[in-house]
Structure formats: C-alpha cells, structure tokens
Amino acid sequence: MSILPGNSKDICRIIGIFEDMKRMTILLVTVLVAACTKAPQLERRYEELPLGAIKPEGWLRETLIRQRDGITKNLDETYPQVVGPDNGWLGGDGDRWERGPYWVDGMLPLAYILDDDELKAKAQKWVDWTLENQREDGFIGPDKGYPYVEGLQRGMPLDWWPRIVMLKVLQQYYNATGEQRVLDCLGRYFRYQLETLPEKPLDTYTFWARYRAGDNLDVVLWYYNLTREPWLLELADLLHSQSFDFAGEFLRGEMLATKASIHCVNLAQGLKEPVVYWQYKRDPRLLEAVDKGLADIRRFNGFPSGMFGGDEALHGADPRQGSELCSAVELMYSYEQMLKITGDTRLADELERVAFNALPAQTSSDFRLHQYFQKPNQAQVTFGLHNFDVGQEGTGQVFGFLTAYPCCLTNQHQGWPKFTQNLWYRTGDGGLAAMVYSPCKVSTVCGGSAVTISERTAYPFEGTVELALSLDKPGRFPLELRVPGWARSVDITVNGSAVKAEGKIVRIEREWSDGDLVRVEFGMEVEATRWYENSVALERGPLVYALGLGEKWKKTVLSGSQREKFGDCYWEVFPTEPWNYGLLRKQVLGDISSVEVYVDSSKVGGEFPWTLSDAPIRLRVQGARIASWQLCGGDAGPLPWTPGGAPDVGDWPNYPLEPGETVDLVPYGCTKLRISEFPVL
Ligand SMILES: [Zn+2]
Prior knowledge:
The chain has 681 residues and is α+β, with helices and mostly antiparallel strands.
C-alpha cells in the first residue's frame, strides 16, 4: 500500500511525557484522534540529508571550488546587468524573470556544501528579500512590470514560472537552516496558488510553467510531508491537472519520435512530473509512462553522453545536433528527484552518465566559458548556424561567457552542487544509502550514533569504493549500496569478510563500530553500444570514451550590438590532428575484450581529471581513417553508415580499408573536441 500510517513517533513521545498521569487513557484517545485527522505521510524511498552533511572530496571538491571561483561567486560583478542589485528579486527595477533565481538555485547549495560564508551571504540577500516582501495575499517575488530594455526580462511580472525556481531555492534554504519563516512563506504562497490557479492557470502568462509544473508539485508534496495539511493535496491535483500531460504523451509514443515536438529543456525538466505525482497517487501507469519516455528519448534522440538531440526543439539522434547545457543540469535534477522517490537504480545510472560525460565537457576547466550546445561528434567548434533549430545568430556552439541565450550562464550552477547533495540519502528506517558514487565525506546521526563515512575512491575512473566509518559509539543501522547496471561483478567486504551482494541495492544491516571498513569493487569492462547510423560508442563503467582531439583555440572579439548581446568575445576550437576515424569491426563487434585499458596511476585520484592532458584512463583500440568522411558546414560531416548485418543481407564492408592503426580514446568528459559515435569498418 502506498501510504504509511503517520505520526507514530509523535504519539509515543507525547505518551512518554504523560504516562504517569491518571487520565492517560483519555489523552491517548485524544492524540490518536488528532493523528487520524491529519492526512497521511507520503512514502518516499529515500530522503535528502541536510544541506552541508555531504562534503565533496578529491576531484569533486576541486570541481566545486573551480566552479565557485570561476563563475558562481562573482556573477553579480561579471553579469551585473541581470543578477546585480537592480534585479527585481532584490527589489530593483531590473530583470525579474528566471535568471536571478536560477543563479541562486545553484549558488545556495554550493555555499552550504563548501561552507563558504561569502557565498552564503550573497544567497541570503535573495532569500531574505523574497521572505520579507511576500505580499499580503501570499504572492512572492516582484509583481510590477517595466518596459522592455535590451538584455533584460522585465515584463511578465506575474508569470508562475520564475516562482517555481524560487520555490526550489527556499526548499534548499530550509534544508540548510530549518528556519520556520520559510515554511510560513511557502504555506501562504501555496494557499495563494490554490485560490488563484483556477482563474489564472499555469500557462496564463507564458507556457513555461505548464511544462515545468513538476518542480512546483515536488515542493508542494515535500511541504505536505512536513505539515500534512490535506488542502495541499488539492493543490497537488490542481497543479497536475494544469501540467503538460507528459504521462499521456510518453504512453502515446509519438512526441518523442517526432522532431521539433517539444523544447529540450522543457523535456529534461518536465519529464519528472508523472513520478513526482506518483508519490501521491501511486498509479503504476505514471511510472510506466516515464520508463517508456526515457527509453524513447534514448531510441529516437539519444546520445552516448546521456543527453539527447535538442537544439532547442527536439532534434533526433544525429551526433551533429546539439544538446543544451540547461538540459544537462535539468535532466540531472530530474533524475535526482525521481531517484529519491522510487529508489530505481537505473535513474542513478543515467544521472552518472550525464554528470561524468556531458557536464564536464560543456564548460571550460576554469568554468569561465561554456557552450550553449555541445555535440557528440564535435570535430570543430565554430561560429555558424550548424543546422540547429535555434541558431543563436551563429553563437550556439562556440565557447563564451554570454554567448547564445543567457539562460545557461545562470542555470548551470545547480549541476555539480546538487549532484554532490545526492551522493547519500537517509533510508526510511534511519540508515544511509549510497546511490551515486564520488569521493566525499558524509556526517549524520544513525542508530543513535554520530557517524562520519569517508568515501575514498577514484570513481568514476575506477570501480573501487572504500567506505571508512567513524562512530562516537557503536550503533545499529542499515547501509544501502547501489549496484550500477554496468557492473559485471560485485564484491563487497566488511572488515575483510565477504558480504552477499544480490540485487540492485545491497543492504547491510549490522552493529557498526568505529574503524569499520566497507570495500566495494564493481567490475568494469569495455562495452560497445549502438547509436545513430548503426555507429558504435565504447563505454567502461559510467564513462563513455571518445577520440579526444588536440585543441587550438581562436578568440574573436565582438563589438557593437553583438558585444552587448553576446559578451566581449567568443572562442572557436580547431583540431590539431585528424578526427575522421572509424573502429575495426573485428575488435569492437568481435573481440571487445582485446581493447587495452591504460590506467595512468599518477593521474588516477588527481586533483582535476577533466582535461585531455589529465585524463587518467585511456582505451587503446584498432581504428582506421575514412578518407571520404570530411568536414561539412564547419563540423564533422554526416556520420557514415555502418552496415547493419541484417540476417538476410549480411555484413558488407563499405569502405576501402585504409591501413589500420591504434587509436587512444579518453573519457568523453575530458574532451572539448571529440568523436564519440564511430562508424565501424
Ligand atoms: Zn540554457
């Protein structure tokens, strides 16, 4: 059954206090009646730990520090026209739509995870203004519009959409501080939504909120579990009824097989809505729909990096198409929210796929530059329209600070901090769960003991994870460990003794003591997966491997109106070596185990592995150049077809065989120029 009986802990506590009183029986009846009038708790597989309980270590810490110093910390100085003091969410007459809240949605968790006082103070201003300027009727945020000014979004003051981002900010702020005033504000705002939405539905002002209603719903149901006031479920039903019908579209099946059928960020962000609603309605159709949706995204639009073709409309699986940076961080957040609700480990597999492949590839190693669209086969990065759905006046693919549309400049901040926050969860029975792996340290209370677990690992580059436990006193609690879908073997020991490892989540329940050590070894093997035009990508564990090309960067300085719109300059990147390789059939579709894996022990566990020169692992494969595969339109030309070997046709090698040579592939996330979908020769 879906719903747990609620509030039994509270009842026990109250009974304990009054147990020596004569009228205990009467009191007990009173309390039970009160408990029954409260609506029941919604069951979720896992709960988030307080913000700050999980600290990044190793490469992850260095990545967050680079993000902080490179872009997050000073965005109010480098991009003052939008997120400076004039922003409407700070009471000014400037920009008042999504970009201010976007920045805080990533800056706030980053501040608490790194325990950075300066960053906390910057986020605090936005939270305080929102909480202190709530309207009498419950509305939050700026409510007055201003005439259009180039580069600012000052209209649409009542749009529901930017408020959805601020709800995520307030939820995280409560998770960090526990301040009651956040709950008071949310309660009043949700009352306002319940009263106003019937007259002014989500798509009254713009269509964005209708596609992104899942995030609004998610905060409502989280708030409901804290307060269990039944009217919040009415609001949940109302939001669901006004949301774009993702479940229906996924089950009908046409939308994801049709190009230009939906905006890429709306899809990445909105696809969680049926699962969010499922935690309340428990209709299995809702989960089936998202299962089918994710499978169809992969089938019709999928890239090996975990992303899908969408630049900006849905644009199929051709690796010359792009995926937007906003889509990457929103898709990660969707996986994170759905993973907590369902505990479905496939969602963690997909989350890691995006985080370890697409995400690091789309920003520079100092985080000062990013690409709006990245491509799976990106032999060059050039100014031009590139057959994108929205060409962004030629700046869609180039690296820059303000190039293309500036949503990604402000929305990218949530990627790594929220990923860190989702490495560990609280289980329903007071234990801990490691659903996603990376070097980190988690501190909390379990089984009455203060527990710190140091997660020592070079994951995702290696499959070994050590969990070293520190406890102030022995305590009994469960530890749950996800087994990744790609793991070919699983070996788990506790203090050297083997533990039975069955299923997708291994649960170890015992009395833990200070100094206990859990060692996990997931077997990683090289595998070939099939993609567009029957091409092949090579994967090992959570990493996709690509032909990483030497880079020559070329800066172009902008002037006039272009400068105002797209910033001081943009960067193109050109390869310093040939890119037009295919892989040899006899190896990648035959003896795949003959692909050699080179581990550079001096780089495994390195500070920042996400560059070509710091790549800790290389795959050495047999390849050959395809003379006819050349540049076209500023990038790799159409991907040559790999003969399919249909039973009634057989395999036809359709290229004149060039002399074979060995080719080194590196993790996709270490590349800026790459081929990741290979024709097979
Ligand atoms: Zn964007």
